[in-house]
Specification:
Blueprint: E1 2-5, E2 11-17, E3 25-33, H1 38-53, E4 63-68, H2 72-89, E5 93-97, H3 98-106, E6 112-118, E7 124-130, E8 144-149, H4 151-155, E9 167-170, H5 174-181, H6 187-190, H7 205-217, H8 236-247
Parallel strand pairs: 1-4, 4-5, 6-9
Antiparallel strand pairs: 1-2, 2-3, 6-7, 7-8
Pfam families: TsaD
GO cellular component, one term: cytosol
GO biological process, one term: tRNA threonylcarbamoyladenosine modification
Length: 256
């Protein structure tokens, strides 16, 4: 299983070994640097990961890719690359939600996992998972499903009965979320957050490959052309189009 990750500042590729009757194993992982260079470094990173794993094209069973949310440009590049690769090699494609992969990466570090990616106006793309020790995070209990939320909305279920235990913040929004916990609004939850681990700050391509392998075994692969990015928000172009539509009374056309 090949895994491609380009949703954030640190992307890369990985190779996971499919093992019938056992959990998949990570064979190799190569990090590809910052967001601005995903288009230039993703394929070379894939070649290096395959070389390190000792795997050639004929041994690849499927491709997994982070489908979003995250960087608009990074997601678009990653999904387009994965679709072209899977289509050209005649392989199934496994889309992986960024938040699911982050939850998988955190694992059982805490009782609850809160993957967060920065959004605008103090909000986050995130979700709240009751941490599972095995299986696909998509099947874990999710009191707050993936979406665009404020910190208060993400943590509100933890204030209710039956929600005892500590939680772990993971993802590129974790640092900003930690700062919110130091304010008056977040102080009630501050004692329940586990210490931040730098390894949980970015999504690793290995997590994408491993979760993709689990989903492939569960029959959740798709045809390459069926996979589309998941943004959980309007793109800048859509926001501009909406503003233009409001400006000209809903008429479409070219403004010159």
């Amino acid at each position: 299983m090949l895994g491609l990750e380009s949703s954030g500042r640190l992307g890369g590729t990985a190779v996971a070994e499919l093992r019938p009757g056992a959990a998949p194993a990570l064979r190799a992982e190569h990090l590809a640097g910052v967001e601005a260079t995903h288009s230039e470094r993703l394929m070379p990173a894939l070649e290096r990961a395959m070389e390190a794993a000792g795997v050639d094209r004929g041994e690849v069973a499927a491709v997994a890719v982070t489908a979003g949310p995250g960087s608009y440009t990074g997601i678009r590049i990653g999904v387009m690359t994965a679709k072209a690769l899977a289509f050209g090699w005649g392989l199934p494609l496994v889309p992986v939600l960024t938040l699911d992969a982050l939850a998988w990466q955190a694992g059982a570090v805490a009782d609850w996992v809160v993957p967060v990616l920065p959004a605008r106006r103090g909000a986050y793309f995130g979700a709240l998972y009751r941490a599972g020790r095995q299986g696909d995070p998509a099947g874990w209990e999710q009191p707050v499903p993936p979406g665009r939320w404020t910190p208060e909305e993400l943590l509100r279920p933890l204030a209710g009965p039956g929600a005892e235990g500590r939680f772990c913040l993971v993802g590129e929004g974790a640092e900003g979320f930690h700062r919110w916990l130091e304010t008056g609004a977040g102080a009630a939850f501050q004692a329940r957050v586990v210490p931040e681990y730098w390894t949980l700050g970015h999504l690793r391509p290995g997590a994408v490959a491993l979760l993709g392998a689990v989903r492939l075994a569960a029959g959740q692969a798709a045809k390459p052309m069926e996979v589309e990015p998941v943004y959980l928000r309007e793109t800048e172009a859509e926001r501009r189009a909406a503003g233009l539509e409001a400006h000209d009374g809903g008429k479409s056309g070219v403004v010159g």
